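Students often ask why inverse folding is considered easier than folding. One informal answer: many sequences map to the same fold, so there is more than one right answer. In these notes we will look at a single instance of the problem. The structure comes first.
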């Protein structure tokens, strides 16, 4: 049985159980790192891979009684070492891959927040240039926006440092 190495890396994490297809899809996009990959194609591929494991008896498919997502549960037959051997692309550690994807999401959130705050700072600067008489009203807002930039950079730096260290 040939399996997608990225799906394998995600599901063999020991703390990854009782999951939906969408729980696999988010880290899959990060691991795959392919901007041309369409969400529909990724969903089909992941679902097909999960069904292979259901057929093999390593996962159980649990359908919700009402609304909700189908979940997959690892069975007693689930064999992490066999999956790792079948995986073309081995990884020295699989648990950090999932955590890495969460760290990247967090880093992207900080980047977005930083861009918003930079835009806000620039807008206050422009207002001050156009209307110097509003300096007393604008200055506290400008200072707060700059302080937020510094705070966000402080949160972003450790994530960058860790992710760069892990990539080396």
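Output (designed amino acids):
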């Amino acid at each position: 049985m040939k399996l997608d190495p990225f799906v394998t890396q995600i599901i063999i994490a020991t703390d990854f159980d009782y999951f939906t297809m969408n729980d696999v899809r988010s880290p899959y996009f990060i691991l795959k790192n392919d901007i041309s990959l369409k969400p529909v194609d990724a969903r089909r591929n992941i679902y097909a891979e999960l069904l292979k494991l259901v057929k093999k008896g390593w996962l159980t498919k649990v359908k919700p009684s009402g609304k909700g997502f189908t979940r997959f549960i690892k069975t007693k037959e689930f064999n992490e070492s066999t999956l790792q051997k079948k995986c073309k692309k081995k990884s020295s550690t699989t648990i950090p891959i999932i955590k890495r994807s969460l760290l990247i999401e967090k880093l992207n959130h900080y980047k977005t927040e930083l861009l918003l705050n930079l835009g806000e700072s620039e807008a206050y600067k422009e207002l001050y240039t156009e209307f110097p008489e509003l300096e007393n009203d604008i200055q506290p807002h400008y200072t707060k926006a700059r302080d937020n930039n510094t705070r966000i950079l402080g949160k972003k730096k450790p994530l960058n440092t860790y992710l760069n260290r892990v990539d080396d």
